[in-house]
# Entry
Amino acid sequence: MYVVGHKIPDSDSICGAIALAYLKNQIGEAATAARLGELSPETAFILDKFGFEAPELKLSYAGENVYIVDHSEVTQAPDDIAQATIVGIVDHHKLGDLTTSTPLECWIRPVGCSNTIIKMMYDFYNVEIPKNIAGIMMCAILSDTVIFKSPTCTTADIKCVEALAEIAGIEDFKALGMEMFKVKSAVLGTPARDLVMRDFKDFNMNGNLVGIGQLEVIDLSVFDEIRADLEADIVKLKAEGNRHSVFLLLTDIMKEGSQILIASDDESLIERAYGVTPVEGKAWLDGVLSRKKQVVPPLQDAFA
# Structure
């Protein structure tokens, strides 16, 4: 089987594919980790720190057995997923619209990161986690939970990070988490489209295609020189993809909030979803760190 995450993969998607493929091989189920896109700078930093090469870049899965990591959405899956056999899903998001013709294994939990669930799977199968795999799993959880600041973070996530840090030999995992976010915050010199697409997901909301990107940094001032370029690019991206809306979250992990940049056929969605009125295509969402828990659900309700 191929173990693969979503399009425009983040650290959870890549590290989860590596960790789950190893686990499957240990229990006698031949598996290969794969990816649907290029690594983000943060993910490249994590893999380099723990000595991993990027998983195989594979875009076509027709006729293959596939284990999906970190989503259950058709829009985020391989384009030919309907011609593949989905043998399993491990995810921590809302249940999406992927369907199967055969029974499958599902590990879906309301936790902060897919790698937290994969750690539970290792425990369930009583498989020892190698030091380097423990390291990338730990980093993925720190990334997805914003070093435990995200409202999606649970006690399970924290306990898993503590256990994985011990296995990996990392004494100060929060310091490593800040190193990761410093890598994320290095945005100057990067083309606007690359930044918009760095962590971008499409959603089907009541028959409307909606793209939502997110850039997490330690200080929003890093965007001062390029914010206008980002605003212009999401307008272009919306038109190119025939989307109803494209939103870009500029998330300040220290101030614990996000500025949302808006390109939409209906800006009133923002007021209906979040109770704030956009000004010149922007709005501040206080306390909003999580796309899956704080951004997507109210937006879906607004479309409904």
